[in-house]
Amino acid sequence: MSGETAPVLVVGGGLVGLSAALFLAARGVRPLLVERRPASSPHPRAIGYTARTVELLRSVGLESAIPTGGASTAVRRARVESLAGTWFEEQPWSPPSAAPEVEHSPCGPAGIAQDRLEPLLRDRAVALGADVRLSTELVSFEQDDAGVSAVLRAADGGEYEVRAEHLVAADGHRSPVREALGVHRTGRGHLATVRSVLFRAPLEEYLRGGVGQFAIDQPGLSAFLTTYGDGRWVLMFEDDVDRDEKTLRDLVARAIGRSDVAVELITTGRWELAAAVADTYSVGRAHLAGDAAHTLPPNRGGYGANVGIEDAHNLAWKLAAVLAGESTPGLLDTYDAERRPVAELCHRQLFARPERYNPEPTRDVPLIDDRAMVFGQLYRSAAVLDAGPDLPPALRPEQWAGQPGTRAPHLWLSRDGARPSTLDLFGRGWVLLSDNDDWADAAKAASPALDHRRVDVDGFRTAFGLHDGGATLVRPDGYIAWRSPDLPADPANALTSALRQVSFATARPSVSLPGR
Predict the structure, then answer these.
(1) Which of 147, 289, 303, 384 is deepest in the core (most CB within 10 A)?
(2) 439: which DSSP letter?
(3) Could you tell me the pLDDT band of residue 101, with boundaries at 50, 70 and 90?
(4) Around Cβ 159, how many Cβ atoms within 10 Å?
(5) Mind listing the UniProt keywords for this protein, alphabetically (predicted)?
(6) DSSP alpha helices (H): ranges in 221-285?
(7) Where do the DSSP E strands lie in 38-171?
């Protein structure tokens, strides 16, 4: 059995696995990704991506390829007799917010089918140096203190061994890697098994009002209909019944409310709706991400694919820092500490709202604003200073005002005639922000790789919670690790101490990783 080596072995070539490979490759790590299927699934599956996800894709050069749809954070749904029939009422995911509209991001949410997005992620990851192998299956793996040994099987049946320093399991909700690790899950568990039919039809006229999801409610037919924005639609039934083509055509016509529309049936599907979160995201050098770590049913909060892509982003910069020798392995412990509470929060929010799989919502869970869930989730870990247990799990960015443990706020900047965002300053390494030059020498003393940026823009101090002479330290993932609201007596000492703590810095000098 021939042997190969890779810094990171990613198992699973769906959205999350490809995102992990892409984010690693963008940081100079050349991962090996294996996917047992020869191509993307014939089912479009996920369709809605939050503005935060688009921000992450923008950071690796993909924003121009992603069709965005404005500033809204939530998909709109209506209960209808049929598309052409009576529309009863709109069903909001969250109650209307009285909070004023604030521009939280340079990006808008995106609507692109998963089978269209996956090739974009794959091509970009390969272009940046990732080794992506389709029709390649993980047979087994073992790990020790120094790494992971995996046996892979190629399409021709031949097996070979790969030695990697870390393994990322993005192998789905049934995750053989998670099962092999013995990791249990907690949550509502299995909710339902349902069937669907994917079809193509010219129904764009029913999307002009901005509603993209439809709860079909008529005698003898209770179903869910949604568009993929490219002429394809999926009709999901609320049972596990195998239907023949004639029956499917009849039900599609009833959901549309017309029989004069040309309908092409593409394929059918059988889906398990479940909700569960892994009890831990890491065991040794193996790390769970996406559905392997949390199974969250599809909803207008976008908690499935979006949360998984954010998992991959969080884990990637930490793996890159440890592999480069910049950080001790203790940094990887913060992956579970930061990302698992997010999935648990999403799980609670799911069942606090009425859905077709949840007719009786949990009444004692406060509903969190959609903008807070997208842009304002709080991380509490050793990679963040001063994010105490008394703080709420999520708030809107203007409410956080630069709280450590939250995503650094978006503000428009002005540079050489361009209009970048503060978010464009992040993503390559550690960044120190201030509106003065008092911290420039302190940044150089703390680390030669620390990038000090002076921000002269109205609203900077308010957005980041700073006073005269203050500064904010932002991590490579765009999250605030520490801040000094005022200028301390010894800025260099304060910054150096904070940076060493939150970056898990090794004794060796910092090394700058290649940027995007």
Answers:
(1) 289
(2) T
(3) confident
(4) 13
(5) FAD, Flavoprotein, Membrane, Monooxygenase, Oxidoreductase, Transmembrane, Transmembrane helix
(6) 245-256
(7) 48-49, 77-80, 87-90, 110-111, 131-133, 137-144, 147-153, 159-169
Q: All domains of the chain, ordered by start, with CATH?
A: 1-327 (3.50.50.60), 370-503 (3.40.30.120)
- Give Cβ neighbours of residue 205 (< 8 Å, ≥ 6 apart): none
The span from the CA of 36 to the CA of 139, in Å, is 10
pLDDT of 510 above 80: no
The answer to whether 123 touches 260, Cβ cutoff 8 Å, is no
Distance CA 6, CA 157 (A): 21
The predicted-structure confidence for 168-210, as pLDDT tens digits, reads as follows 999 999 999 999 999 999 999 999 999 999 999 999 999 999 8
Distance CA 17, CA 33 (A): 7
Phi/psi of residue 223, each to 5°? Answer: -150, 175
Distance CA 264, CA 203 (A): 12
CB neighbours of residue 341 within 10 Å: 17
> Beta-strand (E) ranges in 253-322?
264-278, 282-283, 286-288, 294-295
First to last CA, the chain: 36
Structure tokens, 461:
């101090």
- Per-residue pLDDT band for 97 (boundaries 50, 70, 90) equals confident
Q: What are residue 418's phi and psi, to 5 degrees?
A: -90, 170
Beta-sheet pairing, 87-90 with 221-227: unpaired
Can you give the pLDDT at residue 357?
A: 82
pTM: 0.94
Altogether, the residues listed in the chain come to a count of: 516
Please state, in angstroms and as integers, the Cα–Cα distance from residue 221 to each residue in 69, 80, 81, 228, following that order: 31, 11, 9, 22
Name the more confident of 99 and 215: 215
